[in-house]
């Protein structure tokens, strides 16, 4: 776990990433923290990035802590007191335990370390009278061990073992900066016997052991800033030469301290290491480059080589820093300096091919023996010539890590959020299309057969769809029963940005069976109807500046079934009214898919959709103006009985691991609808109908339906 380092940025707040637990995988600042950028600073983050903490200024020299869990503020009133400044410096891997210090400004800023479990409410506030003040710098990944400074002495605290100092009483200064997962190994900085401040490593069995420095005879200063989760590899910085240049180092008990150099060819300038992968193969930090800019780097231990991480758009100016690296060494998190000196949190993707194994040297054949002289004088055989060994193959040179362009984390998150908003609207569009298709009827009147053409227009927000098709119906032998079917094809579909139809259009089909007690629509009536549609989609996550464009393919499917019953009353010779009730079920979903692999951070999308069982209550009315014109309409509401939703999920590893479910709230429990239509009898055997309708959708959008059809009946 690396120690917490406070940084000041020029016009915007950059997340100060804090890693603990079994890994150093990237955890990103939640976007909601941007509101604090002018008054505060994030100083710690959980392993998965779902919990971010820090301090903000509420007045001059008056500071308060904040803790955001999955974008929601956590109540920290238990560690806040009037006249005292509270700071957060560390968060456990699961985000439940925080640590830091509380300064009493009325007593000259005296500091007391604390450890607080936001889940259980447990709070430890250092009250050892042996120390004037204490300050906590880090907490172990399991949240059980706090380390820091007590009166300029390194300490650790756990509920099990209590409060203890790490070094002897004659140590002038020491600071515990980092701790591994279980709290068994602690690293930091302390004054050694030669009065130099140097990096140290502490275990119960060895005590404080100085790691020395990069200068001969271990002179000069050094500091340990991070340790691998298993406690084997320590990284930090050390004075490297007589010019007091500061260089990054890698330390193990077997190899000792090793200089990592800098990004300059002559290894001049400065460098410092801030994080290390799980196996110690990859180390990241910042270093001077040839142009005298501070740039992020990744160091490959086996290759003993440092690689510069690219800035945004390969800009030759501006600074960058690598703050952390994932467990597997494939993703680096950090920041770059962009326009107007603003800093942006970014990711780099690494693709490393290890050094090839050098083949062994070929065995040189022995010199052949001289032939023995024959007893009977014969001509001796010519000795065979020695076989000349093949020239060994040159071993292939190791290939350095392939480093992607950095990706803006916040913009990438926003691009997925926009995809979620559009997905809801498109699902609602196809729900609307299902309803419209299921209600499409051939106007057969009292005749026995009917056939015709129809077109329907469906719209939700900026998404719309036009479909044209055929329908027909006929009367069964029992004249009270009629049945029919419809089929259409979408011929013009406009979807939200990033969504487009693909492939051949699948036909949408509908069918119905109806019982009507009387030909004039009075009396009891019942109807069973169903509809199905399917559409292929090409979905593109549009790139913004410093983010990637991802593309994938999916399908939308929709099913609809309705069982309706009503009773018609004649208000007059021209007017009927029919109260009705229905059970309606629909299932509209978009299949899951993964963006193509030609980008560094592809998104994986799960199934999205909803299944609804509703009770429809309403009333229909129809009125004959004359023999040629008939008006009809209806009003009512769908009342939710049972609802199951698969929320939109879009996971981009390392970018939004803890924030990839886009919950839109519960569906509306009561969804009103209204519709109206006009039938015009062109001839006694043919009818032209126009209709329009509105209903509220599952995702609280407005669905509009318009239809036009022609029927011929006989």
TrEMBL record:
<dbReference type="InterPro" id="IPR036709">
    <property type="entry name" value="Autotransporte_beta_dom_sf"/>
</dbReference>
<protein>
    <recommendedName>
        <fullName>Autotransporter domain-containing protein</fullName>
    </recommendedName>
</protein>
<dbReference type="Pfam" id="PF03797">
    <property type="entry name" value="Autotransporter"/>
</dbReference>
<feature type="domain" description="Autotransporter">
    <location>
        <begin position="464"/>
        <end position="692"/>
    </location>
</feature>
<dbReference type="InterPro" id="IPR014262">
    <property type="entry name" value="HAF_rpt"/>
</dbReference>
<dbReference type="InterPro" id="IPR005546">
    <property type="entry name" value="Autotransporte_beta"/>
</dbReference>
<keyword id="KW-0732">Signal</keyword>
<feature type="signal peptide">
    <location>
        <begin position="1"/>
        <end position="27"/>
    </location>
</feature>
């Amino acid at each position: 776990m690396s120690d917490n380092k406070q940084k000041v940025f020029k016009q915007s707040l950059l997340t100060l990433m804090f890693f603990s637990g079994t890994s150093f995988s990237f955890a990103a600042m939640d976007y909601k923290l941007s509101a604090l950028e002018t008054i505060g600073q994030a100083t710690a983050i959980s392993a998965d990035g779902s919990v971010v903490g820090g301090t903000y200024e509420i007045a001059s020299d008056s500071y308060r802590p904040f803790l955001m869990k999955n974008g929601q503020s956590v109540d920290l009133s238990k560690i806040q007191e009037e006249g005292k400044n509270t700071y957060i410096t560390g968060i456990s891997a699961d985000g439940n335990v925080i640590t830091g210090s509380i300064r009493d400004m009325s007593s000259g800023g005296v500091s007391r370390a604390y450890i607080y479990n936001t889940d259980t409410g447990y709070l430890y506030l250092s009250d050892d009278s042996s120390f004037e003040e204490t300050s906590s710098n880090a907490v172990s990944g399991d949240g059980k061990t706090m380390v820091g400074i007590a009166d300029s002495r390194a300490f650790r605290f756990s509920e099990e073992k209590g409060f203890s100092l790490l070094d002897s009483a004659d140590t002038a200064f020491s600071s515990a900066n980092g701790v591994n997962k279980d709290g068994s190994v602690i690293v930091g900085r302390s004054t050694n016997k030669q009065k130099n401040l140097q990096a140290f490593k502490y275990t119960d069995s060895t005590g404080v052991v100085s790691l020395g420095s990069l200068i001969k005879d271990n002179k000069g200063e050094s500091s340990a800033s991070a340790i691998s989760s298993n406690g084997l590899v320590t990284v930090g910085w050390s004075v490297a030469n007589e010019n007091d240049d500061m260089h990054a180092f890698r330390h193990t008990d077997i190899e000792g301290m090793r200089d990592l150099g800098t990004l300059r060819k002559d290894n001049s300038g400065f460098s410092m290491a801030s994080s290390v992968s799980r196996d110690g193969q990859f180390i990241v930090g910042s270093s001077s480059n040839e142009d005298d800019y501070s740039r992020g780097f990744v160091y490959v231990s086996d290759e003993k080589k440092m690689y510069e991480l690219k800035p945004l758009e390969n800009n030759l100016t501006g600074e960058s820093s690598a703050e952390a690296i994932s467990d597997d060494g494939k993703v680096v998190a950090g920041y770059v300096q962009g326009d107007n000196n603003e800093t942006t949190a970014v990711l780099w993707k690494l693709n490393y091919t290890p050094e090839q194994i050098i083949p062994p040297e070929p065995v040189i054949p022995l010199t052949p023996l001289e032939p023995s002289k024959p007893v009977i004088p014969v001509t001796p055989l010519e000795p065979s010539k020695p076989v000349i060994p093949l020239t060994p193959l040159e071993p292939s040179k190791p290939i350095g890590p392939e480093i992607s362009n950095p990706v803006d984390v916040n913009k990438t998150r926003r691009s997925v959020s926009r995809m979620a908003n559009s997905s809801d609207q498109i699902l609602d569009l196809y729900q609307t299309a299902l309803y419209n298709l299921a209600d499409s009827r051939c106007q057969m009147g009292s005749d026995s057969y009917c056939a015709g053409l129809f077109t329907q227009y469906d719209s939700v927000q900026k998404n719309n769809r036009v479909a044209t098709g055929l329908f027909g119906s006929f009367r069964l032998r029992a004249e009270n029963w009629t049945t029919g079917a419809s089929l259409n094809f979408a011929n013009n579909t406009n979807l939200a940005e990033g969504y487009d139809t693909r492939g051949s259009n699948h036909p949408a089909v509908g069918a119905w069976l109806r019982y009507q007690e009387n030909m004039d629509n009075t009396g009891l009536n019942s109807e069973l109807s169903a509809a199905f549609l399917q559409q292929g989609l090409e979905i593109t996550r549009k790139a913004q500046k410093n983010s990637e464009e991802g593309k994938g393919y999916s399908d939308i499917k929709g099913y609809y079934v309705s069982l309706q019953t009503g009773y018609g009353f004649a208000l007059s010779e021209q007017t009927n009214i029919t109260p009705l009730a229905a059970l309606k079920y629909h299932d509209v979903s978009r299949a899951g898919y993964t963006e193509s692999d030609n980008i560094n951070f592809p998104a994986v999308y799960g199934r999205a959709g909803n299944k609804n069982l509703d009770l429809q209550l309403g009333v229909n009315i129809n009125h004959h103006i004359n023999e040629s014109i008939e008006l009809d309409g209806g009003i009512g509401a769908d009342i939710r009985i049972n609802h199951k939703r698969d929320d939109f999920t879009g996971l981009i590893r390392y970018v939004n691991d803890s924030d990839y479910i886009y919950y839109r709230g519960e569906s509306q429990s009561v969804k009103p609808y209204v519709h109206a239509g006009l039938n015009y009898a062109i001839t006694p055997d043919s009818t032209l109908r126009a209709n329009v309708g509105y209903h509220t959708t599952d995702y609280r959008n407005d669905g509009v339906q318009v239809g036009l059809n022609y029927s011929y009946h006989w």
